[in-house]
Amino acid sequence: MSTDEIDVSTPAMLSFYRRLYPYKSIFNWLNHEHTPTRRFTHREFAFTLQGDVYLRYNSFATAEEMKKQVCMLNPTRFEIGPVYSARPRDKKTARPGAFVPVQRELVFDIDMTDYDPVRTCCSGADICRRCWSFISAAVRVLDNAIRDQYGYRHLLWVYSGRRGIHLWISDKEATDLTDEQRKAIVGWLSVIAPGIKEASKKLNFRGGHFTLPPSLRATLTHLSPIFVKLILEDQDCFGSTEGWETLLEYIHHAPLQATLRKLWSDDPTRSSVDKWGDIKSERRKKQGEKEFVSPVL
Ligand SMILES: [Zn+2]
């Protein structure tokens, strides 16, 4: 969690820290109780000051102390780190080996640039109301998956300040997870395999060819209602040649691919809605062919 990427003048930041920053709520959320526990007092805060000065291992006894320090330093950004076995501000005097991270929230980052391959309205650092729909869909899917499949209840969604959103999970069971366990959770919920360029191999369909794994099945409930409006109508993702060629890569059925490619090349005016209709009607014609089963049609 950070106040990064907020491009405002120093006096504006100072009034934000003095008058608006929700110290008490942040304290309550990090600490889980009204009186300070190790979850707050042993928590690292790292400040970035004007001129890129980076101050690590700050810690505070109370929310008031934190506010005083933040207002004094007026950082351009600050980060909330893990809970350590000793107070971070006492790091230098801690016995060797007695200063180690012991707990930290489970964090997911959703960045708008993750949607560059599919959004058509903006790219890179640009963001508008239309492409924000991708983020809102991602929040709906991830929030439900985390609650239903892992049973976590203490979820905090934080707007990053410019182009994305972060999820912080603070259930005790989540903060105690090892790095390996965190990776396993992310892997279980991943749809796109990382580092693979070829579109047709990117989709993480485990448990059988073209069969949606259990972790992803429930997402259809959330995504089906917005698919037509967002992907087909608003973003018109398959309007351009590049868009519909990418779509064809996901259809692992050469004769159907060829039929659709011809249809769409011959008539460049066909919209994404028309093309989706074409896939459905062509599929109906081939329903008897056992090898063609799609998870989404
Ligand atoms: Zn946009």
UniProtKB/TrEMBL annotation:
<keyword id="KW-0804">Transcription</keyword>
<feature type="compositionally biased region" description="Basic and acidic residues">
    <location>
        <begin position="267"/>
        <end position="281"/>
    </location>
</feature>
<keyword id="KW-0235">DNA replication</keyword>
<keyword id="KW-0479">Metal-binding</keyword>
<dbReference type="InterPro" id="IPR014052">
    <property type="entry name" value="DNA_primase_ssu_euk/arc"/>
</dbReference>
<keyword id="KW-0639">Primosome</keyword>
<keyword id="KW-0548">Nucleotidyltransferase</keyword>
<keyword id="KW-0808">Transferase</keyword>
<feature type="region of interest" description="Disordered">
    <location>
        <begin position="267"/>
        <end position="297"/>
    </location>
</feature>
<dbReference type="Pfam" id="PF01896">
    <property type="entry name" value="DNA_primase_S"/>
</dbReference>
<feature type="compositionally biased region" description="Basic and acidic residues">
    <location>
        <begin position="288"/>
        <end position="297"/>
    </location>
</feature>
<comment type="similarity">
    <text>Belongs to the eukaryotic-type primase small subunit family.</text>
</comment>
<protein>
    <recommendedName>
        <fullName>DNA primase</fullName>
        <ecNumber>2.7.7.-</ecNumber>
    </recommendedName>
</protein>
<dbReference type="InterPro" id="IPR002755">
    <property type="entry name" value="DNA_primase_S"/>
</dbReference>
<keyword id="KW-0240">DNA-directed RNA polymerase</keyword>
